[in-house]
Amino acid sequence: MVPSVAVLLLWMIVPLVMTVWFSFQRYNLLDPSVGGFAGFDNYAYLVTDPDFWVSLRNTMVLLASVLVITVGLGTLLAVLFDQDFPGRGIARVLAISPFFVMPTVAALIWKNLMMHPIYGVFGAIAHGFGFEPIDWFAEYPMASVILIVSWEWLPFALLILLTAVQSLDHEQREAARMDSAGVVAQFFFITLPHLSRAISVVIMIETIFLLTVFAEIFVTTSGGPGNATTNLAFLIYARALLQFDVGGASAGGVVAILLANVVAFFLVRSIARRLEV
Amino acid sequence: MATLTLRGLRKSYGAVEAIKGIDLDVEDREFVVFVGPSGCGKSTLLRMIAGLEAITAGDLTIDGKRVNDVGPADRGLAMVFQSYALYPHMTVRQNMGFALRLARVPRAERDRKVEAAAAILQLGPYLDRTPKELSGGQRQRVAIGRSIVRNPKVFLFDEPLSNLDAALRGQMRIELARLHEELQATMIYVTHDQVEAMTMADKIVVLQAGRVEQVGTPLQLYHHPANLFVGGFIGSPRMNMLPGRIASSDAAGVTVELASGVRLKVPVEPGAAQPGDAVTLGIRPEALMARTDGELAGEVQLVERLGGLTLLHVGHGADLPLIVQTDGADASRARTPIRLAVDAAACHLFAANGITLPHLVTHRLVA
Ligand SMILES: Nc1ncnc2c1ncn2[C@@H]1O[C@H](COP(=O)(O)OP(=O)(O)O)[C@@H](O)[C@H]1O
Ligand SMILES: [Mg+2]
Question: What fold is seen in the domain A54-249?
Fold first, then answer.
């Protein structure tokens, strides 16, 4: 027991402590001459940097949008795929398959094959109807990133929610029909409450991953144009490996850890309450 | 007022026909029980009446109005499901008031109706609990309460007691009978348990493989089964079935010769049956008596003592043992020889095609 706990502690504590340590250091990879204790300078620099607040906002916008899209669309699709229709099996496989595409590849596919104004499918369609193609990543950069990330996460939401929909006792729905509940009333009074637990799980898991979206941004917009798509993860990367400012990046990292913990705390608490019921 | 008529009702699932043409009349305030072995189509038939399952062919009318194409909500029926199908995230009060809420009944009136139903079912103290916080019997009552609140023309029950333990089942049986009395409602009740059917029904419908085998009062079915299937299905312990041949027949009945050579004269009409025809002799366990001058000889194989009653399993050659119902004080022991007397008047004869040869005298309890 003791050794395993010790190993686990080291495993978790060492990187954390080092990050916290570096966040109080003057440490630039390009300039070995600066060094020593920085106090809260790195943090002060961070919170006074307008980029930081933008990245925080971008992180939350990305998180919230993708959650709304994947949970909303996932719930609708789950209910739809629960119905019997010809070709349901194939439709399910198609809907689930994006989950197996790795983020970098997904982003590249969307960037070059779908949304590229010249080579992309959307552009071709726009041409077909005689419209000017849209340069998605230049004109709607955040929306484009949200689209890609949602595309990646929708299958996950769908998979969990579909399983949950299928576990709904069909006699409950029939009882509701006898109680003269129409399709809409059945959805809101029977299906949705039944799904609440699965929705909480989807939200919790997606949140953990969506706070750290990186590859999709790196491959498509590199945080731009300007800082339009720079989220916290990308900001830390930019500080550390584009500006070589390890101290500043570490301060960002500590903020990211705090943010993740605050979000996780509220999520876990609200979900734990839901699981009790 | 609520009467139902079923005319040539059929249901197919693709090539499989689950319900093969059913005609039935349900009178106002009648307690009708559909009984039959598992998979015979009881639930399907009930669900067709409820409107949850489309009717492939035939006509269903409620109070003289054809309702084949009327949705389940508009037929004025309420159904109690086997799994109870309570809404788990709603309280008992919300469960029972759900239909009224959807119908936009004002809250005060809704509460009044829910509380009235809760009073009938002794659910008052549980109104603010969720189904998870209730016992099986209480959930059952909530499910019934949910139907009562809607004040339906007809109550439909699909094996409502099958998830309860034996003691509770007995208690709920009595409660349902009381409820039927109190609500003066028409009820259709599905069960595979012939004890439930016998004790609660005004009219039993015996189903097998999607067809009606017989319709009648419990005692009609018990004393005058229409065929071999009903004879074997109704009654517990089961009727003993012995193969035999018709030896002769006259105005006083038909003499049957069993495989063992024993002859019995059963007071039934021979109809088209000829001497020499193969028949099945059905003897209820209580129509066999241990007597030293009895016609049948055998050996006691097993003694089941229920206290007030004793069941003897008597071996008599090749077939299944005969079940004999005797007094609790009967002293028979296993592996001892025994002679059994047969009350021939209470026996049944079934022709080779399974149809009963009708009794000359109707049982005095059967109108
Ligand atoms: N949805 C369905 N699809 C195909 N066959 C069905 C369906 N529902 C019931 N059946 C068939 O219809 C028959 C009657 O079923 P059911 O009414 O549930 O029997 P019971 O309630 O008497 O046990 C069974 O043989 C069953 O396999
Ligand atoms: Mg059934």
Answer: MetI-like fold (1.10.3720)
Same domain? B120 vs B72 = yes
Q: Of A243 and A91, which is predicted with more confidence?
A: A91
Averaged pLDDT in 10-residue chunks for chain B of 367 residues? 90 92 93 93 94 92 91 90 91 92 90 90 88 89 90 91 85 88 91 90 94 94 94 92 90 88 89 86 93 89 91 84 90 89 92 90 83
Tell if the CB–CB gap between A177 and B102 is shorter than 8 Å: no
Coil, helix or strand at residue A79: helix
Q: Are residues B155 and B39 in the same domain?
A: yes
Say if the Cβ atoms of A178 and B102 lie within 8 Å: no
Residues in chain A within 8 Å Cβ distance of B87: 172, 175-176, 189-190, 193
Token reading at B317: 């050659």
pLDDT at B92: 92
B41 lines ligand 1 (CB under 6 A): yes
pTM, whole model, 2 decimals? Answer: 0.81
* Nearest ligand by distance to the CA of B38: 1
Strand, coil or helix: what is B246?
A: strand
Q: Please indicate, yes or no, whether residues B186 and B241 belong to a single structural domain of this protein.
A: no
Model confidence band, residue A275 (pLDDT cutoffs 50, 70, 90):
low
The residue-averaged pLDDT of A29-42 equals: 76
Amino acid letter for position B317: G
| Atom 19 of ligand 1, nearest CA residue | B39
CA of B44 to nearest chain A CA: how many angstroms apart?
Answer: 13
User: Quick check: B343 and B331 in contact, CB under 8 A?
Assistant: no
Other beta carbons within 10 Å of B212: 19
pLDDT score at A274: 67
Domain with residue B111: its CATH number is 3.40.50.300
Inter-residue contact B39 to B64 (CB < 8 Å): no
- In sequence order, what DSSP letters do the residues of B49-93 get, joined into one string? HHTSS--SEEEEEETTEE-TTS-GGGTTEEEE-TT----TTS-HH
Chain B hits for A181, Cβ within 8 Å: 73, 98, 102
Say whether both B221 and B342 belong to one domain.
no
In this structure, the answer to whether residues B112 and B175 fall within a common structural domain is yes
B83 contact residues in A (CB cutoff 8 A)? 169, 171
Q: Is A180 on the interface with B (CB under 8 A)?
A: yes
Q: For residues B222 and B299, state if they share a domain.
A: no
Looking at the fold, whether B189 and B241 belong to one and the same domain comes out as no
**CB contact burial B64-80 (16+ within 10 A = b; e otherwise):** eeebeeeebbebebbbb
Please give the tally of structural domains in chain B.
2
Query: Is the CB of B38 inside a 6 Å radius of any atom of ligand 1?
Result: yes
Domain of B58, in residue numbers = 4-231
State whether the beta carbon of B164 lies less than 6 angstroms from ligand 1: no
Task: Answer yes or no: do B89 and A179 touch at CB < 8 A.
Answer: no
pLDDT of residue A37: 79
- Quote the radius of gyration of chain A (alpha carbons, Å): 23
Sign of the C-alpha dihedral computed for residues B79, B83, B86 and B92 taken in this order: positive
- Inspect the interface and report whether the beta carbons of B79 and A193 lie closer than 8 Å: no
